[in-house]
Structures are given as C-alpha cells and as structure tokens.
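Support case: user asked for a sample of complex input and structure output to validate their parser. Sending the pair below.
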Amino acid sequence: MADAKVIPFDDDRSRGGAAQRPPRRRGGAGSRPPGVQPAAVGEVQPLPGVAPAREGTPGTRGEEPPRQPPQGPPPRPADDGTGGLERRVASGLAFLRRRLTGDYEVDDFGYDEELTDQVLMSLLRPVYEKYFRVEVKGVENIPAEGGALIVANHSGTLPLDGLMMQVAVHDHHPAGRHLRLLAADLVFVLPVVNELARKLGHTLACAEDAERLLGQGELVGVMPEGFKGIGKPFSERYKLQRFGRGGFVSTALRRGVPIVPCSIVGAEEIYPMIGNAKTLARLLGFPYFPLTPTFPWLGPLGAVPLPTKWTIQFGEAIPTDGYPPEAAEDPMLMFNLTDQVREQIQHTLYKLLVQRRSVFF
Amino acid sequence: MLVTGVARQLGGRFVRRIQRDPEVDRVVAVDAVPPEHHLGGADFVQADIRQPTIARVLAESGADTVVHLDVTGTPLGSGGRATLKETNVIGTMQLLGACQKSPNVKRLVVKSSTNVYGSAPRDPAVFTETTPPKSLPSGGFAKDTVEVEGYVRGFARRRPDVAVCVLRFANILGPAADSPLAAYFSLPVLPTVFGYDPRLQFVHEDDVIEVLRIGSHEPRRGTLNSGTFNIAGDGVLLLSQCSRRLGRPTVPLLLPAVTWAGSLVRTLGMTDFSPEQIRLLTHGRVVATDQMRETLGFTPRYTTAETFGDFVRSRGPGLLPPEALARAVDRIAALPLPGSGHPPAQSAD
C-alpha cells in the first residue's frame, strides 16, 4: 500500500535522460519521423545551427542548453527539425501559459493529469527505461475500460515499485490508462511527498477512496503487504507477507471489478536491507529505518538504488462480478479470494525468478 | 418564517429573497444588532438568541419555519472569539429550546459548514455525509459547528415531527463574502505551507441562497429536504491554482513557522486566522455532493472554479495578474524562433 514518490536520488540523471528520450507514446506529432509532419515546413526558414528541440517538457526546461540530440528519430534535415521544434515550442509555451495562469483541471483527489503526463512521467521514465530497464508482461490482462483493482507485491525499502508500475501501465497499456495508486498515510503526512503523490493521482489507502475511484471506473493499484512488505529484511526477499486484512477484496467485491494480480521482480534488490535502526525509526516516526550495505554509511550516495533489472508481470484477471452483493460481507469468501490472489502472485514471482538470468541483467 | 443572523450580508440577502416566494407570508428577522442593509418588507426584531427572549419572539411570531443562519466564523463588528462562540453554541441551544416548546415549528434549517470534517492527512480524500472525521476539530469555528450539529441532532430526536435540514457549506465565496478565507485571498502575498498544496472547494453565495430556499420550503416531488447535506460547487481548485488565478504570489513557509505566525497574528488581534484555517490550507478538504444532487435535488449554478472566478473579478488584479503573465508568454511565443529561450517556469508544481 505504501508508495511515496521519491525522485531526489537521481535528479540530474532523469533530466539528462528526459532530454534524449522520445516523447511519450501518446504525445502526438512531436515524436513522429520527419515524413509524417510535412505541415509548417514551408513557412519555416531553415536554421542550420538551431539546437534540436528537447522533447517531453519544453515548458519546464526550455532554457537549458540541450545536452544531447534527440535519439528517437534519426537526424533530420534542418527544415524538418525546425518545423517540429516550432510546434514543440508552441505546445510548450501553451503548457507554460496554462500552468502560470492556473488554467488547468485537477480531479477531486487532486490528480493533475496534465502535469503527470507532461512533467512527472518524463521524470520517472528514464529511471524506468534506462535504469531499471523494466520489462512488462501481460499488460493485456488489464481491462481496457472500467474499474479494475491491480494487486501487486511490495518491496524495495522505498516504494519505487509502485511508481514503476504506474509508468508501466501508463506507457504500455494500449488504451493508455492511468493507474491510481493507494498509498500509506505516511505519504500524505510528509511535505512535498504528499503534494507530488496527490498530483500523480495517488490517494490514501482506505476503503472509501478505493471504492470511489473504482466507482468512477478508474484503474486502482494497491499493494496490500504495506510496510510489512516494503520494509522486510533482504533475507526474506520474494516471500509475500500477509495481505493486510483482505480489505482490497471486499472493496473489489462491492464494486464488482476484476482483480488483476501483479508480480514485480527486481525491486527487492534495489536496497538490500540488512538491518533496521528501530530506535531511529521511532524517533523519526517512520515504520522502519533501513540499513543497507551502502546506506547510511555513504551518505546520500548510499541512497542510490542498485541498478537491478526489473520484470513486471500482470496476471490473469480474477473476476468478482459473479458473486452476490452480500459476498463482500462473507469473511470465508474474502479469505479464499485473498489467498487465491496471493498464491497467484507468489507463483508468478517464483516463475519469474527461475527465468531470471541475473539480478542486474 | 423566522430567520436568525440577518445582520450579515448572507442573512440579509436571504431575507430579501425569500419574501418574493409565494409560500412565505411573513418573515421575522432576528439579530442582536440592527442590520446595516435593508431587509425588504421583513419585520426586524432585535433580540439576542443567547437570551431566553428568543422563545417569546418565536412564540409571538408563530413561525412554522426557522432558518438558523447565525452560525458563523467571523465576529460582526466588535466582540471577539468568545462572544462568537457563545452566539454559535449557546444561541443554538436557546433557539432549539424555543423551537422544541413551540408547537407551530414544522421545519428547521441550520447553516453548518464542512469544517465539521476537520482536515487531516489520514482522512479519506473525499468526505461523504457519513464519514466520521479522523481528528475532531480542536477549537474555533469548526468545533462550534460540531457542537451545533450535536444539539441539532438531539433536537431532531426529541421532535421527530420537525423536518430538520442541516446544510454543510463548503467555503462560501462571492463578491460580498466576508469569510476568513476571503480575507486570506485578499492578502497581497499569500503565505502557504511549504510542501502542501491543499484541495479547496467553494460554493457561491447565490447558490447558498438558493439551497437555503430549497431547505426552507416544502420538498419538491421526488426530493427530500430533511437530513444532512454537503453543499459545494463541482470540481476542485488547488491553492496553487487559486493563487495563480488571483495573480497573487505565494510565499511558502515551513509548517511550524506558519503555525507560529498564525498564533502571533491572533495574539496581536490583526485577524482571526485560526488553527483550523491553517489546517485547511495545509491538507485541504473535499466533500462529496451526491446527496445534494440526488436527495435534495439541488444543482449548483456555479462550479468551484466559476465561484472563484467571480470572486477574483470582484477583488481586482493582484501583483501578478494572470492576463499579464499570459500576455508575456504570448509575446515570447511571437518572438522569432532562434532566440526563443523562454523563461524558466516554476510552474511544474
């Protein structure tokens, strides 16, 4: 359930990466190879020396000198490049204008779709693509429309797995769906983190919010292991912890939405937690304070996660609409379903672990 | 019909409006101080609802509907927080006592506030009428409303024949609003809490008057106007959006500094900026309005954003008017491309 979005550890890398990655899949004309955008070519003067446009979020980083040429489309003739550049600059300015004048919409949960798509996702994507090299399987198991509850294992000391799962769904699902994660209350207590979490569309892991989101037909992601999963010692890696009290099952039953089990391999090894400074954790009000081979001994450098290779596998959906309405109140059924989901995730985890060649490749 | 709290803008507007309704024969307007605005053809009775005289006023008027608007967060004229609390809580008790004794009263409408939910990071993102607050408001106006609602519930139990309608209004804004939040938005520079961007909801004054009318008349066919209802405009604005639309820059301060500054300002008596107000501006609050739509049968005319837009127009431009910023961006867009390094945007948050 816990997930905080912590971007600090590789800020500059993600920026560098953002400069070179092609714009997001659904980003429109910007990413098309030159032949597709013949418009605006005529009136634009060729500017040979002009810097190639940075893609993604021109509005926020437009002033920086570009560091790398875009690598997606091959180097193109200057006039074509400027056509794309002009369009990107224009859309960047329009974005900037909307942001500066406050002319954008957020939903009841504080989810800022525009900011997520244009800025936050482009910050996370380099981590996802270049650092953890996430491989996604079974994304077609997520329904193209209507509510669904994605249940995943939780690990890694810091809830990066939730964020990566969000990018995975966002970038790979054919219907371009957005994942709304349920996060621990600690996330909403911390300054800055809570603000970013709300804007990324996360909300508090409670039955009310989950039901409301599912009722709106949203895709909701939950990690029922919570702090028990994310803060477990390295020796217990890939051993699923108790799935809370199964509240996620009754929520799904009440809304009649399918449960999609999701197994994430690779997140366990990013911060091998060999110890837990409990006194310090209590002092700071955190559920645990991790001690890894590098943290806190190397200071901030020790907080850089290990570049493991990840696999995210979405399993076959478990339908819940066949049960009568009172099923949500049936504890036996709830436990059975919880176990079924848990077993399925655990099995997939073992299968993926057997297939894995190495932790890092 | 008997209306309390008419010396305020909202009460005055409601009294003037309600007299135009054919169902209303006579309006008795009550407040402790004479209003500065006119009340149309209503009979003004100067009575303090904290005193038992209100029972006599009610009995003499023979009113069948009581609209209790004297539950407010800002003191009128002089009188500090203590008087206000007395009016809110003791006044409500006296008024309810009077209503209980009066056989004529058939309908009671009470103005409450979504403040009753408090604001805490551990609350669900959207409050419904039945959500129990995780942390009860510890003081100030929010605590008053919690207590007022408690007394109203007790009254509803003792007089099941009276239709009781409790309207929990989100932050009321409009050209004439005099709430603490309106005062806050009138500051030239808005102090905010660093690292938090609260979600806010507003309801327009016009909608407030409308929904009070619905509550105080017989329910229309297919609707029910007794019970507790959240009243808020559609949609949500973040505080950062509000400040940009207002054109007033924000100064993010650390939470302890804000709390400290708030208590300092209170001690100096400059403004009644209460802790619960600071909590609202830290964690925000959003309520569900399904009950208002489906049961009460009311659809607000203004969304949250439109309400705020109306408020902005009434306040005049701030230091950084959005139009000027938009023009600046447009000018940059009109520049020839080679030099088009546009300014850094702090807009990413």
